[in-house]
Amino acid sequence: MAEDEMAEHINVKKSENFSEWYTQVIIKTGFVDYSEVSGCIVFLPPAYFAWQTISNAIDAEFKKIGVEDTYFPLLIPEKLLTKESEHFEGFVPEVAWVTRTGKTELEEKLAIRPTSETIMYKSFSKWIRSWRDLPMKYNQWNNVLRWEFKHPTPLIRSREFLWNEGHSVFATEEEAIAEREQIIGIYLKVLKDYFAVPGIVGRKSDNEKFAGAVASYSIEHMMPDGWALQGPDHHYDGQNFSKAFDITFLDREGKPVYAYQNTFAISTRELAVLVATHGDDRGLVLPPKLAYVQVVIVPIYKKDNREKVHAYAKKVYEQLNGHFRVKFDDRDGYSPGFKYNEWEMKGVPVRLEIGERDMSGNSVMAVRRDTGEKKPVKVTELGKELEHLMTAIHDNLYSKASDFLKSHVHIVDSYEDLKKTLKEKGGIVTAPWCGDRKCELTVKEETGAKITNIPIEPVKFGSKCVVCGNKSKFAANFARSY
Amino acid sequence: MAEDEMAEHINVKKSENFSEWYTQVIIKTGFVDYSEVSGCIVFLPPAYFAWQTISNAIDAEFKKIGVEDTYFPLLIPEKLLTKESEHFEGFVPEVAWVTRTGKTELEEKLAIRPTSETIMYKSFSKWIRSWRDLPMKYNQWNNVLRWEFKHPTPLIRSREFLWNEGHSVFATEEEAIAEREQIIGIYLKVLKDYFAVPGIVGRKSDNEKFAGAVASYSIEHMMPDGWALQGPDHHYDGQNFSKAFDITFLDREGKPVYAYQNTFAISTRELAVLVATHGDDRGLVLPPKLAYVQVVIVPIYKKDNREKVHAYAKKVYEQLNGHFRVKFDDRDGYSPGFKYNEWEMKGVPVRLEIGERDMSGNSVMAVRRDTGEKKPVKVTELGKELEHLMTAIHDNLYSKASDFLKSHVHIVDSYEDLKKTLKEKGGIVTAPWCGDRKCELTVKEETGAKITNIPIEPVKFGSKCVVCGNKSKFAANFARSY
To answer: What are phi and psi for residue A453, nearest 5 degrees?
Structure first.
């Protein structure tokens, strides 16, 4: 059988060169591609499908708690963007500016949104009048642009990305703060149920929090190279923006009060976590709910039994189609081995191999992508067995990812151990910290590790800050971070 | 009972000043709002919900025929945008240019996509290698920007809008052309089943077709003022772009061939058709499937029976919640009349009025937004009755809209009649046409009407072009058009 192209392979090991492995996997499997615009990528169907699926899942959860979807303009006038100075300074080096339309120079240049606080809050200020209008929980699913000058990496650090940006407004600080658990809960649940990925929830240090926030909370992930990567977040902005944008409401006594605000987001960066967490040396490994193709059927035949095997395989395909996202790879001119490699590389959770021997047993051979395990399954029980396999694969991926995360968190009690652990083991190193920015920056300067967050799960920690020796206030998670 | 604000009203009649009516309805009902960027609007939850619903419905139909979702960059390098000159010239006056990022001037300026042919096809050229890769049907749901200098009107002519852009590639002309019926069929079906809006399908004249297309087909709508408005479209681009962008594939004989391409789109402009078609002098009238709130419950009570009535109304709410998008308007301080007006203005399909009299009959009073019809309904039968009402309202709206469209199509056989009909009746005037661009432009110059399209439904038409008297080839639809 003549192959009309060479099979693609991932030719570097994940454990040896994660960065090169990552690039090969996302590009060679047709997950994303580079584009003609530096730092901006194309989301190919498997990547966009995963994003669409999780954004729909999150949106459904948002709706249950009263979050409403809106859409605000892409462009933000300069004077609006510069209104809240701390916020603006965080974004100014990364803003792409529209200065001309057609052949006309604009009088005021327009920013492509790096985030939409400023344009949204200008409207909020107009709309919100009384306590009756609150809470107001607006969200949008959109594209944003941050023209970062560091080396862009597809999905991890792309100049344009897709996300949700939630912007909620409350009458009281208590209500605003109470929202955090709901939103972080939704993100965690979707990460677990769809991505099969865990994370560490905690508060950002003041140095690392969002520009304009009072308190930022994040979900932090552990990448295969021992570096942390920040996932979804939720920011309590207090009255910072409501004062800058004059968002007041009349309370029940008719008194004007500045509103309390939150913002929250999950972005397509999370697809990088998906790929990095589950993939192996042969390519992508996709959890079934986010797999563009869940089941691939590969017939094994020779010239003389081609029709027979194809007919049988086609019947299996028709039985499964509509219940699973199933692909029948009926291409002639490619060997089964070539096809196995291709679909393994693309991360399809289950492969069904069908040859004449399987036909005679009225069965198929089911092969798991995550474990390689093979198992003959009766055609009559295939639907039920595949449902079972999908759950088993998902659970296995989540459990492996959780073990990996746990094994990469180290608790230390001295600066020597902090440095040694970061150097030798990487991962997240939890250490007692006094809360002083100076100590935080010392660690950053001397080890390259920042505080990813201060976990909300209780951690037993020493009584003295590992840097200055003063009384420790927090168990802080230090890590080198994307 | 003291009202703490004045009720909003639509204070102009749709039939007397459609343009002012339209603006009042979309703004006063909180459907969309103006923004700080001229010509760009905010989609508020009711508008975004309608768009989300129809884009999900269309996307599901697309997936059935193998259309796959992708996401390409927002920005297009100038040299790419100018590659296909006819296409480019159609868009150049409307392009917003990014010339600076942070404080750095870009070497090559970047266009915000007015449409994505150029950036997508550059990638297509790289990806498509053999007949095995075809057909390739890629789509994206995104935002585009066209900085039109004419007076922008929210939704109808907004500088930024949301749409789907489908871009399919085929090995043969026949396959490419055959896709049209599928896609137009999907758009028509969703227009009928969700928008409750009909349209006229036909081919664009060469003068009016899409820049770069061989043949454009559109669905044309009739607005209340007798002007036509173009809805979704499908373009057969032949090999125009494949030649400009070098999209070739090796056919089964190994010979390189330029591919055949289509593009197709539906945009948020369609929400303007929704509002304009069904709305009346009291405000929005929303078809149930696109109504953000489908059922509103308004309790009628006095001080002494407030608790009793509220408890009963709340039980009704709980019975319906989850089955319908239902709102219990339990605000104190507003009279029932005030609430009726507000929810009528917002276009809620069914209102349930609940007072003590209804309680004693174990019923509620159901009021239809479209006809004003009132009907007592037993609480035990409410779910079933509401299902029935939703269908009845949808069907009534579609039937009224179809009648309106039919009554605004006039067939004429002479230039005098064409001019007279356009002047006195407006609407769409079908007339025999020779196919010559000169005659088309004469009509445009003398009447302001262009050819909206050449209907594919058979029309009996005269043998001579109404303008030049030469042999007629087509029944062309002339109309003044948005």
So the answer is: -165, 175
Structure tokens at B90: 């159609």
The amino acid at B335: S
For residue A36, give the nearest of B49, B77, B145 by CB distance. B77
**Closest C-alpha to A300, from A334, A350, A256:** A334
Q: What is the ipTM of this complex?
A: 0.96
Residues 6+ apart with CB under 8 A from A23: A153, A154
Residue carrying the six token digits 């199933």: A326
Q: Is pLDDT at A31 greater than 90 in this prediction?
A: yes
| Inter-chain touch A95–B102, beta carbons under 8 Å | yes
B293-392: CATH number = 3.40.50.800
Burial class (CB in 10 A: 0-12, 13-18, 19+), B11: exposed
Mark yes or no for CB contact B70/A96 under 8 Å: no
State the average pLDDT over residues B47-55: 98
Task: Enumerate residues 4 to 63 of chain B having a beta carbon within 8 A of any beta carbon in chain A.
Answer: 4, 33, 35-37, 40-45, 48-49, 51-52
Domain ranges within chain B, ordered by starting residue: 18-278, 293-392, 409-479
* C-beta atoms of A36 and B92 within 8 A: no
Residue A444 CA to residue A441 CA, distance in Å, equals: 5
pLDDT digit string, tens, across residues B424-437 = 999 999 999 999 99
Closest CB to B42: pick one of A95, A123, A145: A123
CATH architecture of the region A409-479: 2-Layer Sandwich (3.30)
- Could you say which of 3.40.50.2300, 3.30.1380.20, 3.30.930.10, 3.30.70.260 is the CATH number of the domain covering A18-278? 3.30.930.10
For residues A94-124, one letter each, b for 16 or more C-beta atoms within 10 angstroms of the residue's C-beta and e for the rest, the string is: bbbbbbbbeeeebeebbbbbbbbbbbbbbbb
| Model confidence pLDDT, tens digit, residues B130-175 | 999 999 999 999 999 999 877 899 999 999 999 999 999 999 999 9
